[in-house]
Structure formats: C-alpha cells, structure tokens
Specification:
Blueprint (H helix, E strand, L loop, with lengths): L2 H6 L18 E6 L5 H14 L4 E5 L5 H7 L8 E4 L2 E5 L2 H13 L4 H4 L2 H9 L5 H15 L5 E5 L3 H18 L3 H13 L5 E7 L3 H17 L6 E7 L9 H10 L2 H27 L4 E6 L10 H15 L1
Parallel strand pairs: 1-5, 1-6, 2-4, 2-5, 6-7, 7-8
Antiparallel strand pairs: 3-4
Length: 321
C-alpha cells in the first residue's frame, strides 16, 4: 500500500475535541526503569494518537529493538517509515543525526568524503559534555520545528539517561557562549521547555524499588530541567479482587473457604496490599500530576501474546485518555 493510501485509510480526524491535553503536545518522552513496560506504553500512546488522526512519529532512542518488534519488524532505521495509518516509526542513530545536521545546518557535505564520518562523530561527541546527547534530542526537536508531524512520541532511554538528554541543549548552549552552536541550542531549548509543546511521561509499576527510583527521577527532572512533567503512567496495577470496601466481609469469606481456594486468594490479597502501599507512597511524594492507571494484562513476557497485549494496551490507554 502506498504512503498516501495508508494515510487516507484512516477515518479519524484530529480535531481539538478528540485530543486530551497530553495528545496536544508536540513532543512526548516516555521513560521509566527497565522492565516496567515503557516501550509498550510508548507504542500504545503512538497508536492512540495515530488512530485519532494525528500524524505521529514514534522514535526508539536506545535501538534495542523493542519498538521495531512491535511495529516494524527488523526494518526500522533512522529514516522514518510509515508502518500504520498516520504512524511513522524510526530508530535513533546519532551518527546519522550528525550527518543530517552537517548537511542541513553546517552545509559542508564534502566533509564526510574527506574525513570518515566515524572520525567526525568521535570528535564531535568528545568535544564537550552533552554534545552526543544533543544529536539525538536535536533530531527530535527538528521534526517538531519543521512541523513534519503533529506529535513525536519517544520511547526514551531508561531513567538514568533521560535527564542528561533533556538537559543537554542548555548545558551545551552555556558552554558554547555565542555562535552557531549556541543559536542551534536556543531553538531546541524553546521547544523542550515549553509546557504546551513538550512533556515527559514516566512509566512506573507498583513495586517499592521502582517507585523509589521514579520519585527520584521526578525530582531530578524538575530540579535539573525546565521540561514539563504532568502525567505519570501507573502500569500493571492489579484490579481489586472484589467490588467492595468492606474488608471484614472479605476476611469472613476467606475463613469459610477451603484451603485450595483460600490460599490463592490470600496471596492475591497480599499482592494487592503491597501494590496499594507503593501507590500511596508514590502519590504522596508526587501529588501534582495526573495518573494514568493501566491494569495488569495477561501475557506480559510471552512473545506469542505480544500482539494481544499491545492491542489491549491501546484500547485501555485510549479509554484513560
């Protein structure tokens, strides 16, 4: 199917009424500790946006293949490719980003013919703190600035890297002082620090260690950057075992059940209690965001179930938004 046919095949219309505040942003970084479902959430969010009529670019930053496996097989590259109606996908490649930067802004295309690109890349990447990070962030900001897409959704690197990436343009700009590099960082900063354009969405599961790291991440983003953080995805939350808040009734029921039924229910109750404690800790520490709660979905970790899990996530996330 041609690109035009794919785009035309959607019946969705990206009117303001269809878009929640999150989807009105132009650049959304989805981040989180490894194993929390970050990539699954990023892909689901991109599909929700695309199905609501937005020209959507989904970018995988760490090139581990999590996005490629879900939307493009092994064929995703630095060049965005249309994979579904209204949805383009790419994998970040900082060397290719440098090549594009040299072509668009420095306008010295012969440089890489005289000097191997790898040598140029190593020189630039080692020139100053933040330069390597800015190549990836700069590519994303460029797509927003050029208005090539309505929204760019980023499957970001894990929590340990996202802060340095977002902070890179300001750090490099301060080091550059004046000149072309400073000018380049200024327009990136304007995008990254405009709360109507850019936001970071951490993904967290209700486990003590993950919650602690997420609280630290939120504090780091807010203290070291000026990028918006107004949403947080609570993923894999166990549903209540019974639709009642009467705990005494629940305990009485457990007592009269035979052990074969009572023991699994007691274990499930314990898991729910542990999750509730972690969620309460998180909400006490980060009380000024909107929480998007996603349930535990059967099939996590089962490659044969990925398609069903992904589609279920799209439906549930769409309901939350």
């Amino acid at each position: 199917m041609s690109k035009s046919a794919l785009v035309a095949s959607t019946d969705a219309s990206a009117s303001a009424a269809d878009l929640t505040p999150l989807l009105r942003h132009r650049l959304v970084f989805v981040t989180g500790k490894g194993g929390v479902g970050k990539s699954t959430v990023a892909v689901a969010l991109a599909r929700v946006a695309a199905r609501r009529g937005l020209r959507t670019l989904l970018c995988e930053m760490d090139a581990k293949g999590s996005v490629s496996a879900r939307v493009g097989g092994d064929s995703l590259t630095f060049d965005p490719r249309l994979v579904e109606p209204n949805l383009w996908a790419m994998v970040m490649d900082t060397e290719q980003s440098l090549r594009e930067y040299l072509r668009l802004f420095v306008r010295i295309p012969l440089l890489t013919k005289v000097t191997p690109l790898a040598a140029v890349f190593d020189f630039v990447a080692d020139a100053a703190p933040g330069v390597k990070e800015i190549l990836g962030i700069g590519k994303l900001c460029h797509e927003v600035r050029q208005d090539n897409y309505d929204i760019v959704i980023v499957d970001s690197e894990a929590t340990g890297h996202i802060v340095s990436q977002i902070a890179a343009p300001r750090i490099v700009g301060q080091l550059a002082g004046i000149g072309m590099l400073r000018d380049q960082t200024e327009w990136m900063i304007k995008i990254l620090e405009d709360e109507s354009l850019c936001t970071v969405v951490p993904v967290v599961v209700p486990e003590e260690l993950v919650v602690t790291e997420t609280i630290d991440l939120v504090e780091s983003i807010r203290s070291q950057t000026k990028t918006d953080l107004s949403w947080l995805v609570l993923n894999r939350v166990e549903a209540p075992l019974v639709a009642t808040t009467d705990e005494s009734t629940w305990h009485t029921l457990c007592e009269v059940l035979p052990p074969t039924l009572r023991e699994p229910l007691e274990r499930a109750t314990k898991v729910r209690q542990i999750q509730s404690a972690s969620v309460n800790e998180l909400k006490d520490a980060v009380s000024d965001v909107e929480y998007i709660v996603m349930p535990e979905i059967g099939g996590w970790g089962d490659e044969d179930s990925n398609v069903d899990v992904d589609e279920t996530m799209v439906v549930r996330l769409g309901e939350e938004l």
